[in-house]
Design brief:
alpha+beta
Length: 591
């Protein structure tokens, strides 16, 4: 796990100091990998990385080269099936210089070129410099667990793991796209797979690759997406096949040469991981977190019971709610893109404590809700769409279904009431454009809803925060339930086999029923959010930030915005505005 960067300049005049720029990019992401740094510079391109050593700790510093050094690789992530891949590649004559997982990518590229990604099971973003053909090939995993950004300049290009590192190294000042800013206010996180809020910085979408050569830049889909409606190719659900895929994924995810633990929330997903990890011979330490006193969203006591039942060492982190406000401001220096999820505050505090304890790898149940249909609200909406029971809320903006969520509906209402600048025109149709962007029209309810959740909410809210907040403390966060083999199996089943109206996670619960009591499996779902007053306290202290901020000066009417702030209403929309302005203060120049 690490941070990666590359700078490409075929003509030799795109950047004044290409090697210096590369060094600055890697320096800006040192928190992602404090164990070592490495560089390779050619006349036309260079690649660098900052490494967090997890696998083959002593022998896999990067960049990594193939046998004749014609290929150069920097990779952020883990290739979980690397043992099988390397065995097969060695049998075909490839010579490995490391015992690590990432080198398999290089030798697959030698054999298959850009189709090397087809064989990879894991979380990754990588960059290959092809020195013979003077081309760059970069790719991301199916879910977008690991990030990659790029910016073009004067015919050259810079790539980096983080938006802010790229913006600062290129000495950019904000060039905000109003349309992207409005989408953020409407939904609370980015919903465009490629465009960021800055017009000059692009995001490589999940399951996509980019090729850069002297003819230009091409972004293409490189593998099957996380969720492709209409791709059912299996018959009935097979528990033995499902169990074997899950066990294989879990075994491979749990391998580590450094201190690691399971993040145990007390919910189904992390409890399932901890329980089966124990049964598979990985009696790992578990970490849980709770608040001082009593909280409705605190499941740490339940997690403690699970740890005791399994005979696992438990570390319980106690969070003081009074830490939350300073933690928010500390966190915003690393958030990298605007994401307005109040649950990020306790996440930040947890990762901070875990990092201080010396743990370098955390295993999380993140993704189980999206893979196994774990949201009551979205499941009910899926059924309502099919039953024609979901009525329009905003003239033309009811196509995706996202505006059915109370927080997003409130935000949309506030955007309209605060008034947009005349130059921007009407915001009508924004949700329809979102639906068209991800091909939602005509899809059945469950496919429509979960395709959008897996295309936007999961990568650009959940996984974005998981990566940035954990890597800020040099922790690798692994997500076994987002193994692409597991997702492929589930999503190739007919809808009626994987989704059950009125029920959450029907397939995963069938597996967990083998090891967990029914009363635990059937408990109501609970989140892990901070106290209700935190959001309001953050908003009430940000009046000056909102009044002098970019939003009030560009797309919202300042007077109406401040009236909304002083009234104390519309917490969700105002929280999104505070996050945006706080992000903007940090993204281009944090120390």
């Amino acid at each position: 796990m690490c941070g990666i960067a590359a700078v490409v300049d075929f003509a030799g005049f795109a950047f004044k100091d290409r090697e210096g720029l590369l060094a600055e990019l890697v320096g800006n992401i040192r928190h992602r990998g404090p164990d070592s740094q490495g560089f390779c510079n050619d006349a036309w391109a260079g690649a660098g990385m900052s490494r967090l050593a997890i696998v083959d700790v002593a022998g896999s510093d990067q960049p990594i080269f193939n046998e004749d050094k014609s290929l150069v690789l920097v990779c952020n992530g883990e290739i979980y099936n690397h043992v099988e891949l390397s065995r097969d590649l060695k049998a075909r004559g490839h010579v490995f210089s490391t015992q690590g997982d990432c080198e398999t990518i290089l030798h697959l590229y030698e054999e298959k070129g850009d189709r090397c990604v087809d064989d990879l099971c894991g979380m990754f973003a990588f960059i290959i410099l092809d020195r013979v053909n003077r081309r760059v090939f970069a790719a991301r995993d199916m879910f977008g667990i690991k990030p990659l950004y790029y910016a073009e300049r004067n015919g050259g290009m810079a790539l980096c793991s983080e938006f802010s590192a790229l913006a600062r190294a290129l000495s950019l000042t904000p060039d905000i796209d109003p349309a992207q800013a409005l989408e953020f206010l409407c939904y609370g996180y980015p919903v465009n797979a490629a465009d960021t809020v800055d017009r000059r910085i692009k995001r490589l979408p999940p399951a996509h690759s980019v090729v850069v050569d002297e003819s230009g830049l091409r972004v293409e889909r490189s593998r099957r997406m996380a969720y492709e409606p209409g791709q059912s190719s299996l018959g009935r659900f097979d528990m033995e096949a499902f169990r074997e895929i899950f066990f294989q994924a879990l075994r491979q995810h749990l391998v580590s040469e450094v201190p690691s633990a399971i993040m145990l929330s007390g919910g189904l997903d992390s409890t399932g991981i901890a329980t089966y990890a124990r049964r598979l011979g990985f009696p790992m330490k578990v970490v849980t977190a709770g608040y001082e006193g009593v909280s409705d969203c605190d499941e740490s006591l339940e997690a403690g019971k699970t740890a005791k039942r399994l005979g696992l060492e438990l570390e319980r982190i106690i969070l003081d709610p009074e830490e939350a406000v300073p933690a928010f401001h500390e966190m915003m220096a690393f958030c990298d893109e605007p994401v307005a999820d109040i649950a990020s505050v306790p996440q930040w505090l947890i990762y901070k404590r875990v990092g201080q304890s010396g743990i370098k790898v955390l295993h999380s149940g993140l993704g189980g809700d999206e893979i196994f249909y774990g949201y009551d609200f979205w499941n009910d909406l899926s059924v309502a769409i099919d039953a024609k029971g979901y009525g329009p809320r905003f003239a033309s903006d009811d196509v995706s279904g996202f505006l059915a969520h109370p927080a997003d509906a409130q935000a949309r209402q506030m955007i309209e009431s605060l008034g947009l600048r005349d130059a921007l025109g009407s915001f009508q149709g924004a949700d329809a454009r979102l639906a068209d962007r991800f091909g939602l029209p005509g899809l059945a309810g469950v496919d429509r809803v979960y395709h959008l959740l897996l295309s936007t909410w999961l990568p650009f809210n959940c996984l974005h925060l998981a990566d940035r907040l954990s890597m800020a403390h040099s922790i690798e966060l692994r997500v076994p339930l987002l193994d692409n083999r597991l997702a492929d199996y589930v999503h190739r089943l007919p809808v009626e086999e994987r989704f059950a109206p009125g029920k959450t996670k029907p397939l995963f619960k069938r597996l967990l029923a083998e090891v967990l009591p029914a009363q635990f499996i059937d408990r109501p779902k609970r989140g892990f959010t901070p106290p209700a007053w935190l959001k309001q306290r953050l908003i009430s202290s940000a009046g000056g930030l909102l009044e002098s901020g970019w939003l009030a000066g560009n797309i919202l009417q300042r007077e109406k915005l401040m009236q909304a702030w002083s009234s104390g209403h519309s917490d969700e929309f105002l929280f999104r505005a505070v996050v945006f302005e706080s992000w903007l203060q940090n993204a281009y120049g944090r120390s």
